[in-house]
Amino acid sequence: MSPTAAVRVRDLGFAYPDGRVALRGVDLEVGVGERIALLGPNGAGKTTLTLQLNGVLSPTAGHVEIGGTRVERGTLREARRRVGIVFQDPDDQLFMPTVAQDVAFGPANFGATGDELRARVSDALAAVGMGEHAERSPSHLSGGQRRRVALATVLACRPDVLVLDEPSANLDPVARRELAEVLLGLDTTLMLVTHDLPYAAQLCDRAVIIDDGRLVADGPVLELLADAELLGRHRLELPWGFEVPRG
Ligand SMILES: Nc1ncnc2c1ncn2[C@@H]1O[C@H](COP(=O)(O)OP(=O)(O)OP(=O)(O)O)[C@@H](O)[C@H]1O
Prior knowledge:
By secondary structure, this protein is α/β, with parallel strands linked by helices. The chain contains nine helices and ten strands.
């Protein structure tokens, strides 16, 4: 057990208010700077797990630690600063009149002002290649551009852990590749929730499979993807013709 783990999830259980159990005894440790894919079929509990990391949802059993600090009532603000979640639908994250205002919103909320705030906005927009679009309305951007801006809104908060929920969904092949290049250029701890197994292979070293609220596999991403029987058991499939690169 590393004292410097970016994320430590201990025996985590969660049931929604209607009684549906979404997580059962999940243990997971993610090292600083590690890139890990969270794989699993629809309804497995992947999004529910990510929402526990910054306290949007609170566990019904077990706990989460971020950078060694337990996520609980008194540390929620800190957890939200440290863990940035990019939601699947960029429109959940964009609501201001301009791109720059959207990107400034998070860091301003965490206390950044003046030159510091301006630098955060321009750095985050430059990181996602959207610097030229700062004064445009997010609603006038393409889906791929909105996804980049949504990522910038989170990067501007300079999180220690970046969580992306289905970042490649609905992107054209060029936008998908460009987003991968952006993500590969970051040095934060990365947790990627995806059904896009080649994307997981490209971006991550390690993967876990979650099914029916349980963590059922954890290992090098290429080893997991090469195990057709394991994938089949958890309703995961590589795209036709995709060859798992030899690790
Ligand atoms: N607000 C909610 N109230 C009750 N049950 C919910 C709620 N949100 C999700 N669930 C249930 O919790 C379980 C886990 O859902 P979750 O969204 O975490 O799965 P997922 O692995 O992210 O799925 P997907 O790949 O489809 O996005 C599912 O059974 C789902 O129906």
